[in-house]
Amino acid sequence: MGSNDSEVALDLVPWLKVYKDGTLERIAGVEVVPPGLDPETNVLSKDIVIIPETGLSARIYRPNNLAAEDQKLPVAVYFHGGAFCVASPAFPCYHTSLNKLVAEANIVAMSVGYRLVPEHPLPTAYEDSWAALQWVASHKEEEDGKHEAWVKDYVDLDQVFLVGDSAGANIAHHLALRIKESDLDQNLKILGIGMIHPYFWGTNPIGSEFTDRLRKELVDRWWLYVCPSDKGCDDPLINPFVEESPDPAGLACDRILVIVAEKDILKDRGRFYYDKLVKSGWKGKAEIMETEGEDHVFHIFNPDSDKAKSLIKRLASFLNQEKETPVDVE
């Protein structure tokens, strides 16, 4: 593969370049750190294999000072961002962020290592994430010798949350819709979804997309690379409100927190999602938080900033709402 600019078909600096021969060069998001004890947060992590046949894995986190006889904790099944083609649970920025979230919220978290585009075209990321959720639910069944000790010993499986940033928030949305139509709905109760800077999009611009043409075109091109379908940016995978999209009233959870950032080109999609959700027939409670002066997933890249700490605190508070708290249902 050459490096001449004339051979580049899609330049998504600083993340990746796609060359005219189809070759992908990942520039960032490829760095990895090992699991273990984080001395700053006193959070312990380890890597696990969920499905050996496909290589589906996850990195699981828990507070280090837990004993098996302690009260069991909520679990956040986490889906990382990266536009379906970048990053992993072992990416240093995500590893740091999960350590901080687990410490702040006093929960167990499982960061899913779904397979990436283009080596594994969509819907592989969704199917891997679904398989990870099924694996979590399997721990409610009778012990068969295959249960993960950290899930069995430390997790309250009646307090399950889905959390994701960017593409991961998109995944969480689709899983919550799928649960309602599956047998999993009988076995696993999802209390809530935490959506950080959700990756939703559409062909027709809304909000700041009218004036920010450069970034609108960039997100268009990125999605068309990730999912080259004849539906383009109105594919139901990326646009949850086109006619073919499932009704959001079918979301299988009681609460949703949508977090957006003022300078993020995706912010208007996040606001639109929230607005449509509260006006739909969904019977849960939706909340929205906006961070002023910040851009997409800023908390991942600047985790020690005051605003990143505020975001994590808000998310932690959302994850710690008592499951007995009633939700108004007409």
Q: Count the strands?
A: 12
Main-sheet strand order equals: 4-5-6-8-7-9-10-11-12
In whole angstroms, the N-to-C terminal distance is: 61 Å
- Low-confidence parts: 323-330
Main sheet characteristics: 9 strands, mixed
Q: Characterize the quaternary organization of these chains.
A: single chain
What share of the residues does DSSP label as strand, in percent?
Answer: 15-25%
Mean pLDDT: 93
Helix content: 25-40%
- Structural class estimated from helices and strands: alpha/beta
Write down the overall geometry: globular
Verbal overview:
This protein has 330 residues and is an alpha/beta fold. The chain contains nine helices and twelve strands. The protein has helices at residues 92-105, 124-137, 149-154, 167-180, 184-187, 213-226, 267-279, 298-301, 306-319; strands at residues 8-12, 16-19, 24-26, 37-38, 43-51, 56-63, 73-79, 108-113, 155-165, 190-196, 255-261, 285-291. The longest helix is centred in the N-terminal third of the chain and has 14 residues, at 92-105. The radius of gyration is 19 Å and the shape is globular. The termini are far apart. 41% of the residues are buried. The model is unreliable at 323-330 (pLDDT under 50).
